[in-house]
Structures are given as structure tokens and as C-alpha cells.
Amino acid sequence: MLKAMQMLISTSSFSSSSHRFRPSVHIYGGFSSISLHPSHSSSVNPYFHAAHASRRFTPFRSSSIRSQSNATPPPPPSDRGCSIKFCQWCGAATKHEIPYGDDKPRAVCTNCGKIAYQNPKMVVGCLIEHENKVLLCKRKIEPSYGLWTLPAGYMELGESAIEGAVRETWEEAGAKVEVLSPFTQLDIPLIGQTYIIFLAKLKDSHFSPGPESLECRLFAHADIPFDSLAFSSMLVTLNLYIEDMKRGAAGIHYGIINKRPGTSPSDIHDFSLDYHWMR
Ligand SMILES: [Zn+2]
Q1: From 30, 179, 216, 225, which residue has the greatest number of CB atoms within 10 Å?
Q2: In the predicted model, is pLDDT for residue 67 greater than 50?
């Protein structure tokens, strides 16, 4: 998958005549469904937005945000995905080894031989626009207690990303929303998470903090508390949003947040935004 992405980047995305995709949006049931149709256009070239991004970005590897055409994402650590100590099926201890035909260490049960795979988690949420303001929640739980975030949380089995984003928004902000479009997908390989944030609007003007929020508040763009945000993903998403608003329209963004190994979870500034694409 990653190799496919690298090939896509190296062979097409930086060419002005490359194959582009233009979305068509269909609204039904309060949700926006977006299908992708190929189109040729030099006027919608994605560009490497981070070079133009707000000074609030503090990348630790500045070269990676200026020229990514030759960059390659770091390989995952060889021991990643081996935190499972006991078998979820029989309870016996696991051993960490590379199964036959695989190339990564896995947790293999020493009794029944079953393999427990660990894969990245999906976090979904909403950036809610209302009267030129955005809705943020102050966290009532760790990590990042007392810091501000967009309403977001882990996607559940059996739901779509949009359903999860709407559900999390209801749970954390007591807000009923209509999703307008995807906005950001941000991968954070170091911690095995992918964030998908949708643009949304309030169905009515009501919102109130849920059990995991101390407070919910609408912030004018100039008042967004960038110094008190909970996560790097929210810092990037809100910066991209502000930059888009300055240009007059929200784009759709993809990027990789590469946090420096050993970075404290509370340090949301120590990262580089790589492979940033927008349309
Ligand atoms: Zn077992």
C-alpha cells in the first residue's frame, strides 16, 4: 500500500499533466457521498501546502516539507505490533516471532499457535463550521486533560467513518451535525493512528459538553487556542483549515505526521508534515 503511494507520488502527482481526480458530491440522508472521477486538469494541481503553511507548524525535519519527491517514509520499527503478551483465544503466553510467509514479528500463541495481528486504529471526527466559527471541546479525560480538540474518537466496528464522526460529535459535544465533505486524512505511523476529519455544520444551534468534555465552545478563527490544543493532528487540521479559509475555500487534504521517535505525547509540535496533498 505504501509502495503504491510512493509510486503514485513519484510518477504522477508532481507532474502538471498528471491524472487528476475530481469529486462529485451527492447529498442524501444528511450525509455527503463522494465518488471520484478521473479528469485531466492542470488547474487543480495538488501542491505541497506545508511550504506555505502557517508559522505555527514547527517541523523537526524541515527538508522533508520542502521537497518530498525523493523522500521515503521511514520503515516501521521491526518490533512494532508486538505488545500482546497473552493469547486472546486460550490465554496462554505469546511469543514474538516472524511467522512463515510474513516479514514482521507477530504475537504467536505458544499453546494454540494462533497469531494476533495489531493494526493501526482509525480516529474519526468533525470540524464543525458555524457562523464563521469552529466548535472545539475541552477534554475532560486523559491524555491531554484540559486541552482543546475537535470532537473525535475511535471508529467502532460496524460503522463507517462518517457515522463514527457524527457519533463522536454527539457524544463529546452534544451536537447534531450534517457532514459536508471529507477534510483531512492524517496518518501518524509512529503511534499507529490515522485521523479522518470531516467538515460539518450544526443541524441546529444546540451543543453541550458530553461526559468526556469539560466545555464546548465556538471559536472565531483568530481566537482558536493554538497554544492549548490536545494533539498534533488537531494542530495540523486547524492550521490547514485556517489557511484554506484565507484562500476562500476548504480543500481536501492528505498528509503524514511523522513525529520524532521518543517525542512526548504531550509535545504536539515536534513533527514534520510529509506527503501533504490537497485538492
Ligand atoms: Zn492460544
Answers
A1: 179
A2: no
